[in-house]
Each structure stands twice: as C-alpha cells, then as structure tokens.
C-alpha cells in the first residue's frame, strides 16, 4: 500500500442501537452535520433514531445519518475525499484510521474531552504524529475463556481438584507461561484417558485438548508484548518482528501443538470460541470480550468462566475497538466533536454493552463502583466478581493498544503475517525461519506506510 493511496481495506459493520423519538424541528440557526455509516436499512434507521434523540435534546446541531453500502464504503469515501465532499463524521475500521490521518483527512480531536470529563481509556486513543485523531466507540480486550463443565469433567477423570487448574481471574495470580503449559497438558486427554504429561500419552489420538490460542496475527501480538517484544517498537518507529523476544514468543504458540500436544493443530477458523470451546473438545481458549454477547451469553450450552491471560515476562492484554472520526474537511469541527462525544456515551449503545458485545470506553465505568455494577450485573455475564477482576480491572490496569492505534499499514502487514505463519502451523518451518525468509517484505510494508 503506497503513501499516495487512501484507504484500501475492507471495513466491518457496527450498529448503534437507540430508542426512536420524534425529530426536533430544525430551524435555520441549527448547524447541520452528517454522519456516515455502512449499515443496512434497519441499522441505518436505528442509528438515525439515536441521532434523532441527540437532535431532540438540544437546539444547536442537527445530525443526519448517511448510509453507504458496506461493499462500496471504501470506494465511496475515496471518491468523496477526492471531490472534497466527505461527510462531517463517520465510522471507520481500526486498521484504516492512520491511513486517512496520513493523508490529512482526519481532524485533531484532542479538545473533545475537557478537564473533569470522564474520558476514553488512553489505550483506546488513535494517534498520528502524537495527535489524537479518533477514539474507539467500544472497548474489547483479550482474555482466557474456559468451558467450566468440561474442565470439571476432565478433573473428575484425572482426580484433580478443579481449583488447581481453573484460570486465575486476578492479574496478581496470573499463570506464568510454564504453569499455563503444564496446566493445559494436565487437561489434555487421549482416547485412553491419559493426559499429555503421562509417558504413555498418545498424541496422535487426542480426545480433549487443554487449550487453544487464537492465531489471528493481530491477536498474537499480545504474546510478543508479553515476552518483552512486539511487532513494532513502542513508539511505532521501528519494525521489530524479527526480535529474539518476538520470535521466541510466537514459537511458543506453535510448540503448544507440536511439542506439548496440548492444543489442536492450527487450521483456519479453528480458533474461534464457537469451534473451540463450543466443540466441547477444548477446555481453555483465548479470544476477545465480545464473545460474551456473540456466543457465550446467548447460545453456549455450557457453564463458562473467564480468566486473565498467562504471561511470559509481562502481564499484559491488548485492546481494540472500531472508531468514529471527524473528517478534517468539515466546516463544523466543534459541533462534530460535540455530536460524537454525546454519541460515545454508554447509554446510547447500552443494548450492546448489556449483551456483552461491547465494553464501555469511558474511564468512569471502570473506576466508579456504581457504574461498573450496572454494567456487569446481568445474566449474560459469568460470575460478577470473576468478570470484574478478569475483564474490568484487567482492561483498566493491564491493557495496551493494539498496534493499529499508532502504526500505519497494519492491515497489509497482518495479512502477510498470516501467510508467513501458515508454514509454521503446518510444521514445515520454525518461526525464526519463516520470519527471516519473509523479513524484507515485512520491513518494506512497514517502511512504505510509515516512512
């Protein structure tokens, strides 16, 4: 992807939900702004209903939602940018924000929140050259989820106390990597009922696996960070994918299957919770908090729990969340920011938060006990104290930004990594061999987008 290009990525849809209310009658003194989104007709109507509520609560600004088809969203925005006809505000994907910022198309939003305001968590701030250009509309962090029914079943067969192998919910008690691997081996059973620590264990005939790690490249970055490395330097100025710490961390993921036999071989889509925990053949799996609302809460037919990730050197998780932006071409940046600041309020996306699909972005929902209790006291969630410690506190104290918050070109970089890693998952190469063979291409992608 060359610098002169605008955004060239596929965006994924998001729907904001709100109760429909009568539209406040606009008069000539109102500033009219537009908000672009890619939903279908139903989603667009729901988003406009939220905008109508905003319009009815004040008499300075009127927001109109502009529907752009999902499949042509990027093309349309590019054409609108070329013609100088971008909307005032709009939704974007995480990986596309900095490309638009690089081309001067996003406004500085550092004045959106003032002193005394509840603010988005710092890790949810997209920055270009140090300047905030977007905030995520929702928060998502990575955790270790587990099928508690299956865990107890394996423990009963092995004569193990479940408390000895239940993932810790507190970062203070997080398993180090060796403990995690050994625990996963205890929970891995072959068809003869022997676990992966038994010398007579049959790795070719595994019945239940102790764990699986989501191998989407953006999620694998958390292990590099945990091991003191990363795909990039902390300031995003250097590509460090070949650092010893990063290579070692990623090799450890492959070793779970190839060496320790406690994780299934990696295949496409095999890491999603629906196909791992949902198969009832995997006890523990890593993935994002959105799964509470998309799978675990509404459709999982087993008791589930959540813990913090194991760690290699640092106790860390990563966060992400699709952002809304103010386009720099708007004639009304202050009004656009006022609309988005209102739109970001949790009550305007409450149905998604209540379901467990989204986590709040404002710090007060993590620090104010009354707000936190309102958020997590609901039947879709696991035990409240468990979730508070493993997700809420963990997100507040241990989350770092995923690299697309501060590095450009991550969509192309991660797509290339996905191909690079495939030979490692197939057992054809070590992680060091695969990365070194493709290092020049990876470094070129980084340089072209961050020069």
Automatic annotation (TrEMBL):
Signal peptide boundaries: 1-25
Q: Does the keyword Signal apply?
A: yes
Q: Which InterPro entries match?
A: Bact_solute-bd_prot1, SBP
Q: Matching CDD domains, A to Z?
A: PBP2_TMBP_like (cd13585)
Does the keyword field hold Ubl conjugation? no
Q: Which controlled-vocabulary keywords does the entry list?
A: Signal
- In Pfam terms, one family for this protein is SBP_bac_8
Q: What is this protein called?
A: Sugar ABC transporter substrate-binding protein
* Organism of derivation: Blautia faecis
């Amino acid at each position: 992807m060359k610098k002169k290009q605008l955004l060239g990525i596929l965006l994924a849809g998001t729907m904001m939900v709100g109760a429909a209310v009568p539209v406040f009658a606009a008069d000539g003194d109102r500033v009219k702004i537009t908000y672009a989104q890619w939903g279908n007709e139903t989603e667009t109507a729901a988003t406009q209903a939220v905008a109508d509520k905003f319009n009815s609560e004040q008499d300075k600004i009127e927001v109109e939602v502009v529907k752009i088809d999902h499949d042509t969203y990027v093309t349309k925005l590019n054409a609108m940018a070329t013609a100088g006809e971008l909307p005032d505000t709009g939704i974007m994907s995480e990986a596309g924000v900095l490309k638009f910022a690089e081309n001067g198309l996003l406004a500085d939003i550092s004045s959106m929140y003032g002193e005394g305001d509840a603010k988005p968590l710092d890790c949810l701030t997209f920055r270009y050259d140090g300047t905030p250009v977007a905030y995520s509309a929702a928060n998502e962090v990575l955790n270790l989820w587990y099928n508690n029914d299956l865990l107890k079943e394996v423990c009963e067969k092995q004569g193990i106390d479940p408390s000895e192998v239940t993932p810790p919910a507190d970062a203070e008690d997080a398993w180090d990597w060796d403990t995690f691997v050994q625990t996963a081996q205890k929970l891995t059973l072959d068809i003869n009922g022997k676990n992966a620590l038994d010398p007579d264990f049959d790795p070719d005939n595994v019945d239940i696996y102790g764990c699986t790690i989501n191998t989407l490249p953006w999620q694998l970055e958390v292990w590099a960070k945990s091991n003191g490395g990363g795909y990039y330097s902390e300031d995003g100025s250097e590509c460090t994918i070949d650092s010893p710490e990063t290579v070692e961390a990623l090799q450890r993921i492959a070793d779970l299957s190839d060496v320790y036999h406690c994780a299934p071989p990696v295949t496409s889509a095999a890491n999603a919770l629906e196909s791992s925990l949902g198969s009832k053949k995997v006890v523990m799996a890593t993935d994002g908090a959105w799964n509470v609302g998309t799978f675990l809460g509404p459709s999982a037919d087993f008791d589930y729990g959540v813990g913090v990730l194991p760690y290699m050197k640092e106790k860390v998780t990563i966060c992400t969340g699709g952002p809304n932006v103010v386009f720099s071409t708007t004639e009304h940046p202050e009004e656009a920011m006022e609309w988005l600041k209102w739109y970001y309020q949790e009550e305007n996306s409450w149905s998604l938060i209540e379901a467990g699909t989204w986590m709040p972005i404002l710090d007060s929902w993590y620090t104010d006990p009354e707000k936190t209790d309102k958020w997590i006291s609901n039947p879709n969630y696991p035990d409240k104290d468990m979730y508070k410690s493993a997700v809420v506190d963990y997100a507040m104290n241990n989350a770092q930004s995923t690299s697309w918050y501060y590095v450009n070109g991550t969509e192309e970089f991660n797509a290339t990594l996905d191909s690079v890693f495939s030979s490692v998952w197939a057992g054809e190469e070590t992680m060091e061999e695969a990365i070194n063979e493709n290092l020049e291409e990876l470094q070129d992608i980084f340089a072209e987008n961050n020069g």
